[in-house]
Amino acid sequence: MKPRSEGFLSGELIPHDSEQFDYIREFHEYLWRFVRIIKPGAIGYLSDYLDEAIKLAESRLGQPVQTTTTPKEVNVVENVDIFNRRRCGNTTRQIDYAIQKLFEGRRVVARDHDQYPESWRMTDLDLFNRILKRLAIEHGLDRMVGLGYIKISRRDLSIELTPNGLIALNSIH
Hints:
Blueprint: H1 19-38, H2 50-61, E1 73-75, H3 90-103, E2 107-109, H4 120-139, H5 141-146, E3 150-153, E4 158-161, H6 163-172
Parallel strand pairs: 1-2
Antiparallel strand pairs: 2-4, 3-4
């Protein structure tokens, strides 16, 4: 869990008879249930167990805990500035970066900045589809596919220009 400032959402700041406090308590109980499924007998502070439990659950479900890429691959989220606010251009920067790397001959793997366990696949798929949409609008994706200039894998959410595609598209741009 990321560090929070002193007193962040503490019991002193939220009345215990409020709906917000009840909502937080409910989710706290769900998180403990999750942690104890993965790590039976866990006691103490939830923050001491949550990150480890998430990593264990991800590895058991087959999601890589740390996405590793080959030198030719680029994970979209790795080198893009991600801000911890909504509606500040995070996804747009990821898409721009992915297309830039495609034209440099790299294989792009769509991994979104929003990596909560319950939504990781949906947000990755959304980013993947947005990259494809931008390629269709700005670079004629249908033509690229028809000419065999691009390889798209929906299984691992990757996009790669073929050698012929690299030559043709880089001579145009």
